[in-house]
Amino acid sequence: MRARRRLLLGGAALLAMLLCSAVLAQSAPPAFQIVESVPVGTIYGQPGVPRTQAVWLDLINHAQKSIDLAAFYISNQPGAALQPVLDALIRRAGAGVKVRILLDASFMKESRAAYDLLKDKPHIDIRILPVNQLTGGVLHAKYFIVDDRTVFVGSQNWDWRALDQIHEIGALVRNTRLAKTFTAAFDFDWQLAADPSLPAAALRAVQPPDFAPVTAQDPIIIEQPERAPISLFPAFSPPALSPTWLDQEQPQLVRFIDGAQHTLDIQVMTLSAFKDYGPKGWWPALDSALRDAAARGVRVRIIVADWALREPMQAYLKSLALMPGITVKYSTLPEAPQGFIPYARVEHCKYAVADDRMSYIGTGNWSWSYFATTVDASLFITGTAPAQTLSAIFNRDWNGPYVQRIEPGGHYAPPRVR
User: Is the pLDDT of residue 16 over 80?
Assistant: First the structure.
């Protein structure tokens, strides 16, 4: 009888532990999420995909120790969607959370009001990175790290329009080693903002890390409940402004395209092999990879924003459309319900999906300067679940009412942007 009682008690205890573990697993936040900004009044918004403002507010409101933010600029409009985010950032800093913000020097006109609001707040430290003086580019990255364990990276600028007036894609990852890797990139540029010396930065760039960074050769593996695990690693641009032991974006993106076997879907604001900012000339890296993919039988579909219709980019896109196997469309979003908004109502996403198994989410457009002179960051992801989500987002756009196919013999007028 005692043995039976002990057996029953032991079974009950085991069952309680299993139930408790199941509840904890259900209540724990997901380790990986794709995040979407949806322009109001459009058909966008993939079911089950969280929205940017809600994700940012949750991350900031739950920060306990630190928030490190790399932002192209900060542009707020009182009462608009970014206001609650800035209010939350100020509250958490007031509660003792250490906030570091890195802004681009050449876009300080856009950031001035937010800078003046934040610079004297307790526990908020702001530095300005003069990328234009160093490489001729800008700080174009959009990522932040919370408590050295959570990373958000994506196309979303810290701009009120990026939350509900522009189509954007980002990713949230809860992983300490990935957070350390992004922090290493952030710290490198943080020091460069204090001492903008490329020779000194070059010496720091070769110093070995004191942890195992996430790289293409050593990615992180993320388990997902009831789904296959995914692996991912980050990559950064430009080579001159990041540690040498971090992966660089351009070669990894070429490798990504070269790895496509059947399908390759790309959505990016602008795409061109003409060098746009900086020295003029031809940039063959991605162009050759895309044409080679089509030539070996990969079905390539590309969506760009109507902002890409300026010349010579339009001519370049027409040249891609001439290739068998490559179809290019441009997207024109309807005007906001309240009327025209400058620098808004645009496809600003930067992502790609290959073979429903590989995904890319980045912060830069696909032209030379964004990889060679400009600070950007991205994630390369292997796994069916993220690829399926991004494919659903892509197909909603591809088959939707806002896109038009670019024909080699057509002529397309660029839109008003301001």
Answer: no
